[in-house]
Amino acid sequence: MTQAPLPHVLVVDDDAAIRQLVDEYLGRNDFRVSAAVDGAGFAAALRSQVLDLVLLDLRLPGEDGMQLLRELRTESQIPVIILTGRTEEADRVMGLELGADDYLTKPFSPRELLARIRTVLRRTHAGKEVHGAPVCRAYRLPGWELNLRTRRLIGADGASVSLSNGEFNLLAALLATANRVVTRDQLIELSRRYDNEVYDRAIDVQILRLRRKIEPDPAEPRIIVTERGVGYRVAVPVEAVY
Hints:
8 helices, five-stranded antiparallel β-sheet
């Protein structure tokens, strides 16, 4: 049985002492830790890595931490714990209103940090299970990775491919049922695991659009194949990243 990867935390803070504390303490408690010191590093990590949680300092030099949080929330529901100073109540309130899951005031104890991270991750995973979705961070297939947290499709070259909401929902549903034939009605129902919106019933149109984006030759599909009279099937190996 394949061992599940360690939960991955990104700490975004220009303070080297904070980054070291987080790395060492969480590392001793079965977490993987990455670090960024500014908005550019933050964005790069989001594009290239599968993350479970972000620790975000709202007072980065020359950066608007609120804007970074706002931009993140337009495209991802990755849990975020914001880091603020003890006197910065307005920052804490605004951060929570923008979608942060919790906050920590500096200086903080490593034990409290660990407890808050575990609580946020339990809450996040429980919410997914209630709605029937597997607690899965990403799907990998030859040449591609679909990150369920950031809703990004990443190619082997690291470039991001833009997906509409409907395309993302459909691709996620297909990858969750890899090598099983699924009907159009089943795809409609499965796609609701990833979004509560009513799914567009024009499945065939969405499939064509996806093929243009992920198939080497859309006219001769090898990834998403048609099972005539039945539905569709993903015909390549798919790895679920938990």
